[in-house]
Amino acid sequence: MTTGLAATAAKHLLLNMTSNGSGEGVFVVRGGEGPYVRDDDGTRYIDGLSGLYCCQLGHSYADEIAEAAGKQLRELSYSPLWSASAHPAAIELAERLAGLAPAGVEHAFFSSGGAEAVETAWKITRRYHALRGEPGRTKVLARHSAYHGLTVGALSFTDDPGLTEPYGPPAIDTRFVSNTNRHGLAPEMADDAVFTAHLLAEIEDTVLAEGPETIAMLIAEPVQNRGGCITPPEGYWPGLRALADRYGFLLVADEVITGFGRLGEWFGGDRYGAAPDLITVAKGITAGCAPMGATLVGQRVAEVVNRPGAVLNHGYTFGGHPLCAAISLRTIEIMERDQVLANVRALEGGLANGMKSLAGLPIVADVRGAGFFHAVQLAGDLPDGGFSDAARQALVVDLIPRRMRDAGLLARVYNRAAPLLQIAPPLISDRPLLDRIVEIIADTLDEASRALTR
Ligand SMILES: Cc1ncc(COP(=O)(O)O)c(C=O)c1O
Fold first, then answer.
1. How far is Cα 104 from Cα 107, in angstroms, rounded to an integer?
2. Measured from the CB, is residue 224 less than 6 Å from ligand 1?
3. From ligand 1's centre to the CA of 236, what distance in Å?
4. How many C-beta atoms lie closer than 10 Å to residue 169's C-beta?
């Protein structure tokens, strides 16, 4: 049992997104190797969510990462990227990222995580419009059920009343448009061309209703996480680009989860023909080994915000920390050397087929995803597919997470209006491990289906 540490945690540690006073035990993760983690008792689990979509390399590269970290700390432990001062690790990483990013995206602004990267995108966007003589572009378009971080600015783009309402009105004026989830829509939306046209028309109508001269940017994930691994229809991202160009707003791809190989590419947007002005990354940029985020800036925007005399009056003490930058450089080196992206591309078809095979189970409403990133939307006991309180408690809160954990899998179960089960395994996972993940989910959902009385 984890009583010792769990008791100390209950006394002193405030967990994120947790009812800290509920008296529920804390699950203490003590160690990890490969795609597995170990709890305080030594029980091993598949790290089916890569921690929190971070551990692209699993937990096996500690010696190499530690070697890079030690070398950097011995050379330079800290120096800021502030007031025309920089250090080699950040400079080299910025160059490296420019080489991996889509053509024309050549600058990086570093931060300590995803929300900071998103807020940086917002501030750079504001600078861009102001310097071009359009300070009235103050509104953001984001998408329903989006999650872009929880700091006060990024929270404005996050569409979840449970997360936003306790903190009052949003800091940034945001309008939400549809995401690309077609589950439950009219049958004609199964056609990519029809669905894309429908989604783009809605965005265009919103822009026109608000006034194009008021729209600063549109932010979207290539595959939306929080709505449950929602992939875009064909033509959607090129359509977003065309709308951004037509109405003069900037297009921001939030790749905090989809970047660094999760979809088999350095940037998930590459898969969908995205040509964003700004890209936000974090999490996988260091494979979870150090806190880091970055906002990558396209040439067209950089030319404006870098105009002689223009000051980028924004910054974070630890943005681009030498330790984190050195770890990121080594992470990228390892991912290239060990062909981690190729592993995702080679195995994603099998994983997708395995996940799709769950579609016939009574408790499964929809299965979707790409790369090593998949979700199952759950169907409940009510005639409309929703869950009664009793079924929600018995299945979504209790049986499904418990059954998966007992079988040795850590995956995510979102207890939302439409509950979801989600996986994002380490990108070094092999086929037997992916098969085992699908098998555990299948057994779990089979048992849950049998417990479901409609
Ligand atoms: C798409 C997206 N953007 C931004 C964030 C915020 O990142 P962080 O928690 O590092 O601030 C997250 C976190 O999960 C995310 O999924």
1. 9
2. no
3. 22
4. 8
Nearest-angstrom CA–CA distance, 220 and 158? 11
What is the spatial distance between Cα 158 and Cα 6, in angstroms, rounded to a whole number? 31
Which CATH architecture is the domain 64-337 placed in?
3-Layer(aba) Sandwich (3.40)
The whole-angstrom separation of Cα 153 and Cα 121 is 11
| pLDDT tens per residue across span 283-294 | 999 999 999 999
**Model confidence, pTM:** 0.97
| Arch. (CATH architecture) of 3-60+339-451 | Alpha-Beta Complex (3.90)
Q: Same CATH fold, 64-337 and 3-60+339-451? A: no
Measured from the CB, is residue 221 less than 6 Å from ligand 1? yes
Q: Which tokens hold the place of 363? A: 């408790």
| Domain ranges (residues) in the chain | 3-60+339-451, 64-337
Give the ligand 1 atom nearest the CA of 226.
16
* Cα 262 to Cα 266: distance, rounded to the nearest angstrom: 8
Q: How far is CA 385 from CA 179, 356, 377, 380, 396, in A?
A: 20, 19, 10, 5, 14
Side chain identity at 284, as an amino acid letter? G
The per-residue pLDDT for range 100-135, each reduced to its tens digit, is: 999 999 999 999 999 999 999 999 999 999 999 999
User: Per-residue DSSP letters for 316-373?
Assistant: -TTTT-HHHHHHHHHHHHHHHHTTHHHHHHHHHHHHHHHHHGGGGSTTEEEEEEETTE
